[in-house]
Amino acid sequence: SLFDIISGFQRCENFVVFGPSDPIVAVLGGNIMLSCRVSPAMDVETMELRWFRSKFSEVVFIYENQQEQKEGQLEQYTGRTSLVKDFLSRGEAAVLIQKVQASDNGMYTCFFRKGSFYEEANLELKVAGVGSAPQVRITGPEEDGVQVVCMTSGWFPKPQVQWRAVNGEKFLSFSETYTEDAEGLFSVEAALVVRDSSSRNITCSVLNPVLDQKKTMAIFIPEPFFPQASPWKSAFIVSLMVLMLPLIGATYYTKREHTAKRQAQQEWETLMCPFSGWKKAQLYAVSVTLDPESAHPSLAVSGGKTSVTLKDTSEDPAEPCSIVGQEAITSGCSYWEVEIRNGNRSNWNLGVCRGDAERQGWYREGPEKGFWVVGKYEHNFCALVLPNDQVICEEIPQRVGVFIDLEEGDVSFYNMTKNSHLFSFSLPSSSGTLIQTFKNEDLLWFPEMRRHRTGSGRRKSQIPVPACDQ
């Protein structure tokens, strides 16, 4: 065999080496042990132990003369391997690999030698890593439909992408482009053309096939984004096939078809080009899931973790009732809408906050505290800024849109009942990870709660109140 040629060793029946029969799964960045054992069980501490890749010379780790030998070790394993000695006396030996990399994926051989006798076993290491949450956005008209693109990075091995409609039906026809970075991690961009305007709620799921773990992001495509079908297209095709019009007729219809398509394109461009404000924001619509573990005990989460209400309780919570979203916002753009019921009957606010922002007790929101929120206080709708809240208007919106652009450093709020802008904050570059936040400061059946707020620092602004449609 190869080892007979290299070293002149002889095999014998004194012992055999066994490795795990199933592949070992390691998570990127974690630690993993590659373990083998001899049979019959015996003390292997005085043996030569070697783990290598496809060739005997591709050394992962060597233990000889009861100490680690670094000579010949592959550079990628330098400083990342060590021997687990706990069970050497019982015939078990394992090498620990720290900070697992994508390049660690593949086959290994563990080699045991005692005197002139040797034996080895093969084992497989499957490295797996879950990448970033997918970002889904609308890119424009395409083939009488709307093209949406799903992008994500940092996966290993190559992930699987799946598009679904709100009813669970899979979209089978879409394009995928994979790229691999210097560390061997995969990025994918999957483009889908949605032609049926009834399928406006679309979900992109990215799956790691080894870990069977996936990350999902949804997008809502507003009706106006679907190009109107040209009435001339079907007329042209039918006329051409059935009547076989002369060339001049075909030219006429072709020109009309071109004109109609150009008109449809211009209508789309008219809709798309001035994308600013809420129109631009809706391109980045995402689903928001509330985190029940972050909810105040007086709050009830329902509707698939998308709705929160005050519980009907006689206990005084003695502090604001707040909850945050489950999904962290770390890059790109995100937009969601919040429907507020009975918004005039209590003090509340919504928006985003830093993941490490203090939310215990009677805390004071503001950008300096890591909160970018708007809400109803006293009789006004305000943006919460220090030292005094900035009054936006007296009318309380029933539906508020929230848009975050981390690249531009912007948090904007919109009155989606009137499709108008309410207020915008500037985000510092050091804002870090953000999460959605929702807070209610009054329970209507506890009128004494207002007395508890004495000295909280919140004062009624003397700024003249503008109209909400400004």
From TrEMBL:
<dbReference type="InterPro" id="IPR006574">
    <property type="entry name" value="PRY"/>
</dbReference>
<dbReference type="GO" id="GO:0009897">
    <property type="term" value="C:external side of plasma membrane"/>
</dbReference>
<dbReference type="InterPro" id="IPR003877">
    <property type="entry name" value="SPRY_dom"/>
</dbReference>
<feature type="domain" description="Ig-like">
    <location>
        <begin position="29"/>
        <end position="124"/>
    </location>
</feature>
<dbReference type="InterPro" id="IPR043136">
    <property type="entry name" value="B30.2/SPRY_sf"/>
</dbReference>
<dbReference type="Pfam" id="PF22705">
    <property type="entry name" value="C2-set_3"/>
</dbReference>
<dbReference type="InterPro" id="IPR001870">
    <property type="entry name" value="B30.2/SPRY"/>
</dbReference>
<keyword id="KW-1133">Transmembrane helix</keyword>
<dbReference type="GO" id="GO:0001817">
    <property type="term" value="P:regulation of cytokine production"/>
</dbReference>
<dbReference type="GO" id="GO:0005102">
    <property type="term" value="F:signaling receptor binding"/>
</dbReference>
<keyword id="KW-0732">Signal</keyword>
<keyword id="KW-0812">Transmembrane</keyword>
<dbReference type="InterPro" id="IPR003599">
    <property type="entry name" value="Ig_sub"/>
</dbReference>
<dbReference type="InterPro" id="IPR013106">
    <property type="entry name" value="Ig_V-set"/>
</dbReference>
<feature type="transmembrane region" description="Helical">
    <location>
        <begin position="232"/>
        <end position="253"/>
    </location>
</feature>
<keyword id="KW-0472">Membrane</keyword>
<dbReference type="InterPro" id="IPR013320">
    <property type="entry name" value="ConA-like_dom_sf"/>
</dbReference>
<protein>
    <recommendedName>
        <fullName>Butyrophilin subfamily 1 member A1</fullName>
    </recommendedName>
</protein>
<dbReference type="InterPro" id="IPR036179">
    <property type="entry name" value="Ig-like_dom_sf"/>
</dbReference>
<dbReference type="InterPro" id="IPR053896">
    <property type="entry name" value="BTN3A2-like_Ig-C"/>
</dbReference>
<comment type="similarity">
    <text>Belongs to the immunoglobulin superfamily. BTN/MOG family.</text>
</comment>
<keyword id="KW-1015">Disulfide bond</keyword>
<dbReference type="Pfam" id="PF07686">
    <property type="entry name" value="V-set"/>
</dbReference>
<keyword id="KW-0325">Glycoprotein</keyword>
<dbReference type="GO" id="GO:0050852">
    <property type="term" value="P:T cell receptor signaling pathway"/>
</dbReference>
<dbReference type="InterPro" id="IPR007110">
    <property type="entry name" value="Ig-like_dom"/>
</dbReference>
<dbReference type="InterPro" id="IPR003879">
    <property type="entry name" value="Butyrophylin_SPRY"/>
</dbReference>
<feature type="domain" description="Ig-like">
    <location>
        <begin position="134"/>
        <end position="218"/>
    </location>
</feature>
<feature type="domain" description="B30.2/SPRY">
    <location>
        <begin position="268"/>
        <end position="459"/>
    </location>
</feature>
<dbReference type="InterPro" id="IPR013783">
    <property type="entry name" value="Ig-like_fold"/>
</dbReference>
<dbReference type="Pfam" id="PF00622">
    <property type="entry name" value="SPRY"/>
</dbReference>
<dbReference type="InterPro" id="IPR050504">
    <property type="entry name" value="IgSF_BTN/MOG"/>
</dbReference>
<keyword id="KW-0393">Immunoglobulin domain</keyword>
